[in-house]
Target: Glucan endo-1,3-beta-D-glucosidase
Amino acid sequence: MAKQASVASVLGAALVLIVALLAAFPAAVHSIGVCNGVLGSNLPTPSDVVQLYKSKGIASMRIYAPETGILRALAGTGIGLVMDVPNENLTAMASSPPFAAAWVKANVQPYSSSSGVSFRYIAVGNEVVDSEGQKNILPAMKNLAGALAASGIGIKVSTALRFDAITNTFPPSNGVFSDPSFMGPVAAYLASTGAPLLVNVYPYFAYVDNPRDIQLGYATFQPGTTVRDDGNGLVYTNLFDAMVDSIYAALEDAGTPGVGVVVSESGWPSAGGFAATAENARRYNQGLIGHVGGGTPKKAGPLETYVFAMFNENQKTGLETEKHFGLFNPDKSPAYSISF
Ligand SMILES: *[C@@H]1O[C@H](CO)[C@@H](O)[C@H](O)[C@H]1NC(C)=O
Model:
């Protein structure tokens, strides 16, 4: 009897430990999310979109603005959410704590209960590249964090960078921020709050800029190419890892080695331009999905990563390839075969 009781209590303690470990590392279970852009005239309804995420087992979503329909459809699903404060609202958020408070009240508070939306981060701005706009980012992050704290909401605040915010990216250990006067204070703030830095990482664009020196297989997670970083002796078998490790190097250079990285976008177009084929897109995205759970040479462990994007978006402007980053067509059929 005594023996049985002790076996039971040991099992019980082990179970408690396992549950505690699972609760402490939610990202370890699910490192892949998908960005849900809405610049299409023919996209499914929010509840159909969320249903598709669920049926494919996609653990998290990024959206580029607070969208009521999607927020309502996500409530109670457990799907993690990264939500942006759109760039056009940063001037107001940077200059006005009451604006930040109203934004939280309208867009976060109604969904932040335990049965609501599983917010992961709020990204203050996406790919803000002009220096005037960049001046707004840190004050806007602080006003937003203040408004969240005042409402008792514990969501971490960050910003999503375009990859060219990092320079000297090869070898990866040489990576530094392109504008330390902008990113130094942002990185220091993230270090103080424990939030990660979000960065959009596209080996596709690096490859199309320099197909002479970069091999397609290296850019698309195919075996056959290895590159050594002479600065630290690490060996790279794919361009994605090399790019991500240059971000870690930039954070070290800024004196903030403890700040984590989330890849807030990555993807490959299936049509519309150079190297944009369904087969290359499938190889890249399937490679990415299979890869990020293990992290990079510099930093092992799950790397939270968001594939861009869920759907082909026919109203995206710019290069023709921009319309063809989707994993799915607007009718919810797969753009090419992929598994999560
Ligand atoms: C954000 O900016 C857009 C474009 O200027 C504007 O229409 C919208 O009302 C702003 N949002 C808020 C909450 O003020």
